[in-house]
Amino acid sequence: MLAWLLRLVLIAVFVLAGSLLTWGVAAGQPGWGLAAALAVFAAQPLMLGVEFMLQRQAHGNDPTPRPTTAALWAAWQAETSVAVRVFFGRQPFLAEHEPDHLPMQAQGRRGVLLLHGFICNRGLWNPWLRRLRHQGVPVVAATMEPVFGSIDDCAPAVESAMRQLEQCTGMRPIVVAHSMGGLVLRSWWARHDGDSRVQHAITIASPHHGTVLARWALWRNARQMQRGSQWLKALAGAEPAERYRRFTCFFGACDNIVFPPLTATLDGADNRHLPGIAHMKMIESQSPWQALQTLLQPHAGVHHDTPRKPGGG
């Protein structure tokens, strides 16, 4: 569904830009027509700029080092480039381009589950899927819908993906989740015995304590990510504190979506700061990838696997 929505948005953008340019030419003002058309394409980077300004204002007394103006400027430039690749390329047109990898001879090999965030689909993970497949690592990237429904409604997609990996490998997978995907994981975890089924979780820019940006949310799942929301309180209230030791949480002071920075951390987790990197760009950072590689080593972690029956039973 999201892929089609993004395609429609792209069509609308090009139609509007083309109409403005045509209007300018017909009115004898081609320069103004071109300027108006370019303004349509500038809307996305301008919106990102507004997010960075809000992020800077909301930093408050968060103990994470406050980024400099130069760092925010560089983060904005990099984020603009990533957003174009993700929202104008991978997700609308290449969501199924990189297949899941569930090889026949994978019993006893650790698998990986990849979970995307808000207004995203599995196309977000194409580079990771390609690299993990080349390594021979069993991997599944779920697309979670409805796009604008409750976060809890995404749990069936997580359960389906988990069962595929359990049947293929007989082992507990490592879960890597970006943004809202970290909350989806925690919601699923509380309902599906995640303590016995997940080896470790890596969250990247996940609003574990909400985000200031969700204050202006229109959709249900975005409202659930408001700081202090009843949904977040209920989620945290159902979790034992020791569970967070199974998490590695990446966060950043230049995150233009999840802020202030420490809202993306969990008490007791291995919280790691990614300086100078914005929200979507964190997917391309080497630090989360290297953390996963370390966890995929045969003797990584302290939790011992119990053989699972087909279907996760």
Structure description:
The protein has a 6-stranded parallel beta sheet, with helices on both faces. The protein is of the alpha/beta class and about 325 residues long. The longest helix has 29 residues, at about 30-60. The model is unreliable at about 305-313 (pLDDT under 50). It folds into 2 domains: about 1-25 and about 35-60 and about 65-95; about 110-295, Alpha/Beta hydrolase fold, catalytic domain (Rossmann fold). The chain has 9 helices and 6 strands.
Name the features.
Rossmann fold, 44% helix, alpha/beta, disordered C terminus, 2 domains, six-stranded parallel beta sheet, 9 helices, 313 residues
If you average the pLDDT, what whole number results? 93
Tell me the radius of gyration.
21 Å
Q: In the CATH classification, which architecture of the largest domain applies? A: 3-Layer(aba) Sandwich
Q: What share of residues is helical?
A: 40-55%
Percent of sequence in beta strands? 5-15%
Order of helices and strands: HHHEHEHEHEHHEEH
- Total count of strands: 6
At CATH level 3, the topology of the largest domain is Rossmann fold
Q: Quick one: CATH class of the largest domain? A: Alpha Beta
Strand order within the widest beta sheet: 2-1-3-4-5-6
* Overall structural domain count: 2
Largest β-sheet summary = 6 strands, parallel
